[in-house]
């Protein structure tokens, strides 16, 4: 199941990097995140209630929900170390790192990086 954008009122935020997504233009089937190029289907906007002014209490509860999903750490992510490494794909300055020990000690180790923002993966040999 693909990750869908976070909704706050009438706004959608990128599920990968948290950037505010633009509204889809006419005849466009998806919206591209300006920050990480995450592709969000335009259908995500269809269920948004536009008349939020009549429900002012909807906004804070949506904010609380967002905070809850952000602090939830996936088990796989918890085992990874977050480091300051620049993503070659999107330029984001945080990545998860994981060290892979190769077959023999002579071959050294390889560090796998996964961009926090766009999930781009790359490796660096020691
Ligand atoms: Zn994004
Ligand atoms: Zn990236």
Number of self-contained structural domains: 2
User: In total, how many beta strands?
Assistant: 8
Percent of residues in beta strands: 25-35%
Unreliable residue runs: none
The portion of residues assigned to helices is: 10-25%
Which small-molecule ligands are present, each listed once? Answer: zinc ion
Our Rg estimate from Cα atoms comes to: 18 Å
Strand order of the largest sheet: 5-6-7-8
Overall average residue pLDDT? 78
SSE order: EEEEHHEEEE
Largest sheet: 4 strands, antiparallel
- First CA to last CA: what distance? 36 Å
Task: Report on the architecture of this protein.
The protein starts with 5 loop residues before the first strand and ends with a strand. The protein has helices at residues 58-71, 75-78; strands at residues 6-8, 11-13, 30-32, 39-41, 81-83, 95-101, 109-115, 121-125. The chain is of the alpha+beta class and 126 residues long. A hairpin with a 6-residue loop joins strand 3 (30-32) and strand 4. The chain contains two helices and eight strands. It is elongated, with a radius of gyration of 18 Å. The longest helix is centred in the middle third of the chain and has 14 residues, at 58-71. A four-stranded antiparallel beta sheet has the order 5-6-7-8, with no helix packed on it. A two-stranded antiparallel sheet has the order 1-2. The model has no long low-confidence stretch (mean pLDDT 78). The protein has two domains: 6-72, no CATH class; 76-125, Single Sheet (N-terminal domain of TfIIb), CATH 2.20.25. Bound molecules: zinc ion (ZN) (2 copies). Residues 14, 16-17, 19, 33, 35-36, 38 line the site of one zinc ion.
């Amino acid at each position: 199941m693909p990750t869908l954008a976070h909704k706050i009122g009438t706004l959608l935020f990128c599920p990968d990097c948290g950037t505010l997504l633009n509204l889809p233009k006419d005849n466009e089937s998806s919206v591209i995140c300006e920050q990480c190029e995450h592709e969000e289907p335009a259908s995500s906007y269809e269920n948004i209630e536009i008349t939020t002014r009549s429900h002012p209490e909807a906004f804070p509860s949506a904010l609380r929900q967002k905070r809850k999903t952000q602090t939830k750490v996936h088990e796989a992510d918890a085992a990874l170390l977050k480091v300051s490494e620049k993503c070659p794909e999107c330029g984001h300055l945080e990545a998860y790192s994981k060290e892979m020990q190769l077959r023999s000690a002579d071959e050294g180790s390889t560090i796998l990086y996964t961009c926090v923002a766009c999930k781009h993966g790359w490796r660096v040999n020691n």
